[in-house]
Design a protein that fits this description.
The complex is a heterodimer of chains A (114) and B (110).
Chain A: E1 4-7, E2 10-13, E3 19-25, E4 31-37, E5 44-50, E6 53-57, E7 64-67, E8 75-78, E9 87-94, E10 104-105, E11 109-113
Chain B: E1 4-7, E2 10-14, E3 19-25, E4 32-38, E5 44-50, E6 54-58, E7 61-66, E8 71-76, E9 85-93, E10 97-100, E11 104-109
Parallel strand pairs in B: 2-11
Antiparallel strand pairs in B: 1-3, 3-8, 4-5, 4-9, 6-7, 7-8, 9-10, 9-11
Classes of the chains: A mainly beta (114), B mainly beta (110).
């Protein structure tokens, strides 16, 4: 059984719309992350949260907003979608945010913006 | 921002032959290093984590780290067709942030 659940698995959106990507982890971890994998680019760090607080944000655009309603949830709201936002978005978690903590990844949400 | 170069871009090996992958980092920002495997439409599976210079073995997967050369490699012993996947190396820096390479696509032929 997957311990990090991402929903939906696939998502198609029109330019200018807004979508929320869901992530729940059942590993009892205190840190959660979002990564993005665009075509022909490396997997790229976006955000990290620890105990539901933002720790690091490497996303230049404010159109990307993480939302943590519960300790084991970290959703990603994306507004004013653009075709360049098309990518697979991976959620991850670790026990803490210390270096060396093992990261566990979800299966990803593949977003296509038309 | 740290860059990660992976080589080769793709690799085809016969079942049972050793597969070797390489990763070079642009600077010494990362404190430890990971190799992940990514099968199509699936999440990332960590294979080996290495923290010190030298070698670290996890089953059929062995990582070698040379910090002075900013180089990490992965050797897959006796690869099987089920090992066909994209292999990603990553450096881990402050805040448990991973910087990834673009990956090496490995195909293992029966």
């Amino acid at each position: 059984d997957p311990k990090i659940i991402q929903k939906p698995k696939y998502l198609v959106a029109v330019t200018g719309s807004e979508k929320i990507l869901i992530c729940e982890q059942y590993l009892g971890h205190n840190a959660m992350y979002w990564y993005r994998q665009s075509a022909k680019k490396p997997l790229e760090f976006m955000f990290s949260y620890s105990y539901q607080k933002l720790m690091d944000n490497q996303t230049a655009s404010s159109r990307f907003q993480p939302q943590s309603s519960k300790k084991n949830h970290l959703d990603l709201q994306i507004t004013a979608l653009k075709p360049d936002d098309s990518a697979t978005y991976f959620c991850a978690s670790s026990q803490e945010t210390g270096r060396g903590e093992r990261l566990f990844f979800g299966h990803g949400t593949k977003l296509s913006v038309l | 921002q740290q860059k990660v170069q992976q080589s080769p871009e793709s690799l085809t090996v016969s079942e049972g032959a050793m597969a070797s992958l390489n990763c070079t980092f642009s600077d010494g920002t990362s404190n430890n290093f990971r190799w992940y495997r990514q099968h199509s439409a699936k999440g990332l599976e960590v294979l080996v984590s290495i923290f010190s210079d030298g070698e670290k073995e996890e089953g059929r997967f062995t990582a070698h780290l040379n910090r002075a050369n900013l180089h990490v490699s992965l050797h897959i012993r006796e690869p099987q067709p089920s090992d066909s996947a994209v292999y990603l190396c990553a450096g881990n820096s402050a805040g448990n942030k991973l910087t990834f390479g673009i990956g090496t696509r490995v195909l293992v032929r029966p």
